[in-house]
Amino acid sequence: SLCQGIMFHLLPSAQKCLSDEIHQNVFVSGEYAIQAIPNQKVDVQVVDTKGHILFNKEGAPEQGKFAFTTE
Q1: Nearest in space to 18 (alpha carbons), one of 10, 61, 34, 58
Q2: Whole-model pTM?
Q3: 43, 14 in Cβ contact below 8 A?
């Protein structure tokens, strides 16, 4: 399915978990945008239900793209 956009706010050191059921061998891609706050570092990570890291960007830039294939 196509997602038009998701927006949420996080306090410093907080995490946000989103989930969706996706079949195996599906290519997933998307874009993100982060509102910059001075001296704040944001990490973007996608983890499957088995704990495998599918995408990881530490110190993510304000805008970026991600892509992975489900296992």
Answers
A1: 10
A2: 0.73
A3: no
